[in-house]
Amino acid sequence: MDDPSQSDPLKPKYRRVVLKLSGESLGHGSKSGISIDETLNVARQAKRIVDRGVQLAIVVGGGNLLRGTQFSAGGEGVIKESTAHYMGMLGTVMNGLALQDALESLECQTRLMTAARMEAIAEPFIRRRCIRHLEKGRVVILAGGTGNPFVTTDTAAALRGRELGAEVLLKGTRVDGVYTADPELNPHAVRYDRLTFAQVIRDNLRVMDMAAFDMCRDAKLPILVFNFKREGNIERAIAGHPIGTLVSD
Fold first, then answer.
1. CB 45: neighbour CB atoms within 10 A?
2. Is 4-248 CATH 3.40.1160.10?
3. How many other C-beta atoms are found inside a 10 Å radius of the C-beta of residue 173?
4. How far apart are CA 9 and CA 239, in angstroms?
5. What is the largest CA-CA distance in the chain?
6. Coil, helix or strand for 233?
7. Interstrand relation of 223-227 and 245-248 (parallel, antiparallel or unpaired)
């Protein structure tokens, strides 16, 4: 008898996932702004995933538009750091709106939910309502971080992963996993296939910010770090293919 995993190599391994994407994933590389092509690329993969029965929540960053820390150097107090962080949250909402329309252009049902209330364009994040949207097969886009300044979208993704009972937190990056050193600076850096939470702490590896990492470790929520830029990698990650670096207990 044929192995079903061989006949369907993209059969999902996980039922409910949180996907963390930086703002740059929807942008023009090093330039600021939103790229329609990149946004549609993410939307197409998300639709194929949901069509396979996966419950998908996407946490978006806003770095392609504005970073909360960019005013900290030389701002001379004109724009307070907390205000800059709130501005960064608004950037994530703009990205969320773009991704929502891209998904709906593919006839994929969505809900945009934000931590900061702005009912004219998005629903407030309510855990039970969000879970219900997921159960109905809608892609839920989570914007606005946690609604608080000085908190990264990595931490927002970890928090939502725990609240929603996700089976894995997928962290899309520009590189294909966690390395012994920065592979963009050190060509001899070696990629890890698997890591434990204890190894990450022992070797002082950069997986995500420590608040987010500790939250995942406490909940035993696995983190998969992978290259989202490679076509089809989001689907492969959810299918459990050996890509990127899996951090687990």
1. 21
2. yes
3. 21
4. 7
5. 70
6. helix
7. antiparallel
- Show Cβ contacts of residue 151 under 8 Å, excluding neighbours closer than 6 positions: 85, 145, 211
Confidence band for 17, pLDDT divided at 50, 70 and 90: very high
State the pTM of this model: 0.91
CA distances 205 to 24, 25, 176, 216, Å, are: 22, 22, 15, 15
144 token code pair: 């606005």
CA-to-CA distance for 105 and 108, rounded, in angstroms? Answer: 7
Q: How is the chain split into domains, by residue range?
A: 4-248
CB atoms < 10 A from the CB of 234, how many?
25
* 145-172 pLDDT per residue, tens: 999 999 999 999 999 999 999 999 999 9
List the beta strands (DSSP E) in the chain: 16-21, 55-60, 110-114, 123-124, 139-143, 168-173, 194-196, 223-227, 245-248
Give how far Cα 61 sits from Cα of 7, 24, 45, 177, Å.
36, 8, 18, 19
How many C-beta atoms surround the C-beta of residue 182 within 10 A?
A: 10
What is the spatial distance between Cα 5 and Cα 26, in angstroms, rounded to a whole number? 31
Place of tokens 């207990």: 249
